[in-house]
Design a protein that fits this description.
alpha+beta, 2 domains, 32% strand, transmembrane, transmembrane helix
Length: 311
């Protein structure tokens, strides 16, 4: 690392280059500055020295030098509060746009000292670490749009032991979460095609066509309540049916999705994928350059949502 990189302001705020390997905190990664309490402590020492000088009071000198020695010794203890910790990245889970992405971080304390540290991404968490222990924490970051969402800088800090100094270490990992499009709020029925359009048609069996979901209204049959959505806390919805045959298989094609722009069409397509999976319907899926045969289940569901996220 050259001199320019060593004193770059971004290094003190965002940390060094993103890495995959575990990071051990040492003198190169830990930074220390006085806190507001520490600056007040300096002011107190200065006042005591002025009093000692004006009145030639040896006791005031002794008290000022004693407090100054405590001030400087605290720098070493503040550094040791973080030194030696080993920080390692974990996994991240995919979420829908607008939700908080969770990033797993593992912190190992291989020393004989107890640690009082704080770890922060967007929100801070306080940790009390026993000697030779490992803490597993999940840090959250609010997502805004689909695609890959990087974790950003994870900051470990401590004001141990007296709160006079803040020692901190910003760390960047090559860690990111996949963000799916936000499902459309509007409940539009699944697309229908005539039997002549076999490539986009339905395979029908049973009683009525399943058109989609809508919010439960007074008078709707209890048999039509979508209990899976209710159990997941998504609200109370009623299954909507029509015609004389049930919809057992559908095809969701980007070219036939309503919307004014790409994001609206992807959002609606995402809503149909979620609704079809929750209803247990086999669904085909098509984007420009990608076609998936009709299927259902977690693997198929994730493939469809990943394709939408990275489209």
């Amino acid at each position: 690392m050259n001199l320019k990189e060593r004193f770059s302001l971004s290094r003190f705020v965002s940390g060094e280059k993103a890495v995959d390997a575990p990071v051990t905190l040492n003198h190169r990664r830990i930074f220390i500055l006085p806190t507001q309490r520490g600056l007040g402590f300096v002011l107190l020492i200065t006042v005591l020295l002025l009093i000692a000088f004006v009145y030639n009071n040896n006791l005031a000198y002794m008290l000022a030098f004693l407090l100054a020695s405590i001030f400087f010794i605290t720098i070493l203890h503040s550094y040791k509060a973080l030194a030696g910790l080993v920080v390692q990245k974990g996994r991240s889970k995919a979420v829908f746009a607008g939700e908080a992405a969770g990033f797993d971080i593992h912190i190992n304390n291989p020393t004989d000292r107890e640690r009082q540290v704080q770890i922060k991404l967007q929100d801070a968490q306080n940790l009390a670490m026993e000697p030779h222990s490992t803490e597993h924490v999940t840090l959250y970051s609010i997502t805004q749009k689909r695609g890959w969402h990087p974790a950003g800088s994870v900051t470990l800090s401590s004001t141990y032991p007296l709160g006079l100094f803040r020692a901190w270490s910003p760390i960047r990992f090559d860690l990111k979460a996949l963000v799916y499009p936000k499902p459309a709020h509007l409940e539009i029925p699944f697309p229908k095609t005539s039997s002549a359009q076999a490539q986009q048609g339905f395979s029908r069996k049973g009683a009525d066509d399943f058109y989609g979901l809508q919010e439960y209204q007074s008078g709707d049959s209890i048999k039509h309540i979508h209990w899976k959505a209710f159990a997941k806390g998504l609200g109370v919805f009623s299954k909507q049916y029509g015609g004389e045959q049930s919809l057992e298989e559908i095809r969701l094609d980007y070219e036939h999705v309503p919307g004014h722009n790409i994001e609206e069409r992807l959002s609606q397509l995402c809503r149909w994928v979620v609704d079809a999976e929750q209803a247990g319907i086999r669904y085909g899926f098509a984007l420009p350059g990608l076609t998936l045969p009709p299927d259902h289940g977690l693997t198929h569901y994730r493939k469809c949502l990943e394709a939408l996220a990275l489209f």
